[in-house]
Amino acid sequence: MGKQLKFNFNPFKEGLNHVLGTLEKDIMEVLWKHGESSVKDILDTLPAGRNISYSAVITVTNRMTKKALLQKRKVGKAYFYTPIYDREKFFEIISKKVVEGISGFSLQSAMVHFVDYMSQMDPEKIEYFSKLIESKRQSLSKKR
Fold it and tell me: In this model, does residue 6 exceed pLDDT 90?
């Protein structure tokens, strides 16, 4: 896993489409659910109603391999693709990079908006964040 994951964050998209194209997202969902799969397996498992060609899936999976999202292995004439990161690790990496990126604009503003957003989504999160901050404070004071 020497390659570094490459992605662009689009704040105006929803869900995984913040960082993945529509077909990339669909491919990742298939692979996270079913594990290692061939292009044919992926194509057969994509959401119904999508008119996607075999060559489009080949092109996108190869690009995703170059972006360090997938690894591939050859079996006979077919390639099989596997996500490099499971869903949780992927979200962890993306979240960390996004927070690092927005912190470059204004860390204070980013944190204020994050806490406001989380408190609207789930008011109990405020207590969770308070405990998390206190825990970090204590571990930092022990290191000094």
Answer: no
Q: Residue ranges of the domains in the chain?
A: 15-85, 101-143
pLDDT score of 2? 56
Q: What are phi and psi of 81, to 5 degrees?
A: -115, 145
Q: How far apart are CA 59 and CA 63, in angstroms?
A: 6
CATH number for the region 15-85 comes to: 1.10.10.10
DSSP per-residue letters across 74-96? EETTEEEEEESS-HHHHHHHHHH
Tokens of 99: 């927070």
pLDDT, one tens digit per residue, over 89-129 is 999 999 888 888 887 788 888 888 888 888 888 878 888 88
pTM, full prediction: 0.80
* 25-49 residues labelled b (16+ CB within 10 A) or e (exposed): bbbbbbbeeeeebbbebbbeeeeee
